[in-house]
């Protein structure tokens, strides 16, 4: 690296503080009051179901917009996971401990925390039931239960097989327990592939399910960072074995990314890589782990493809307790997910119930960045509902995916269904090292120290 480069990079990293501050304060959604003034002083009872990304931010923000409300958060996980960091564990750049904090340390003191499992919702009675306390009533309910994985929807596969027989999933975690193994499993998987590829041609299949998924773009990280690892780049600095690697990327639909212009950038990158073949309209139906054969449904035909290594993004669905509740969509493409107005985030039938995070039955929006934007909407809309006023805020579908194009470069894809929603006024379609630095060094710290406290 020449001196000029060194200087400019160092200067830029120094400027990162300013940059992240502006990122945190910038307005990418239609939210205009990120640090709102209290909007209701009434003494009401708010229950928040779930203590992941969405529930925790909602608790912090509602504590400000409804300062006299009694807020109870119900979630069993004593450890809080920064799930976005699991990919950096897989890439050998974080350890899993970096992604974990005690829930108690992140939660505002005035929020009551019940470390319990919700076992039923009764919105007609304004109550829910937990495994320990029984029935709990509320004036307002905020649902933030996230999603559960359903590996078993793939014949021959179950969650205990992840990490065995050359099968990995960087997604592997348990939000109810607050534990994650996916990063370490995938790190080991990459190492095993390297060893295999030193001797012979190695076929890897990466799959995505036909359900909504959280953390859109994570499979692309596996492909691109994987290739760099096999080239001997990143923290590994080993022999280049990439000539022996063949990746297939099996997608049930016919696009690499849910927003066309980002798809185009990613498609170009995939063509440059040369060893990645997209398999469009290929839905993983079955895995024969013993014989290393993955069976796909493609154009109504079953196709068997042999692999040496398999990475699976699990099918996802709303947690059972929610799927079975009156708050869920009964049928249609969001069956089991929360039936909210996609803009106000208020339940369509029960007007004292709001929702945010992965549980929502809306297109896109299953990212931590979306939960952050949705919490801003709920902060003001719920306070307005308490005051019997019209709901002032509307979520615009903001979704974010920092696609790790290579070690040292990220394509910061910020978008909704209709358009790109870049936080910064620079070309959003260009991968940049500065987004990598932000993603790797700034976002996790900002997540724990600012986002969790409703400060960004
Ligand atoms: C590998 C990976 C990479 C990702 N990458 C990114 C990224 O780069 N950028 C990004 O923005 N997002 C990313 N995400 C997505 C992001 O982590 C999620 O969108 C976000 O965590 C959603 O928050 P949530 O609160 O809705 O759900 P979660 O954070 O999953 O929390 C769910 C909560 O509900 C609780 N719960 C569930 N059932 C019950 C019950 N019956 N009773 C009580 N509590 C219950 C759980 O204990 C937990 O507290 C990634 C996710 C993964 C797994």
TrEMBL record:
It holds the Pfam family Pyr_redox_2. This is FAD-dependent pyridine nucleotide-disulfide oxidoreductase. GO terms for molecular function: FAD binding; sulfide:quinone oxidoreductase activity. Keywords: Signal. It comes from Sulfurimonas autotrophica (strain ATCC BAA-671 / DSM 16294 / JCM 11897 / OK10). InterPro entries: FAD/NAD-bd_sf, FAD/NAD-binding_dom, Sulphide_quinone_reductase, TAT_signal. One of its GO terms (biological process) is sulfide oxidation, using sulfide:quinone oxidoreductase. The keyword Signal applies. Residues 45-163 form the FAD/NAD(P)-binding domain. It comes from the Bacteria. Residues 1-31 form the signal peptide. SUPFAM superfamilies: FAD/NAD(P)-binding domain (SSF51905).
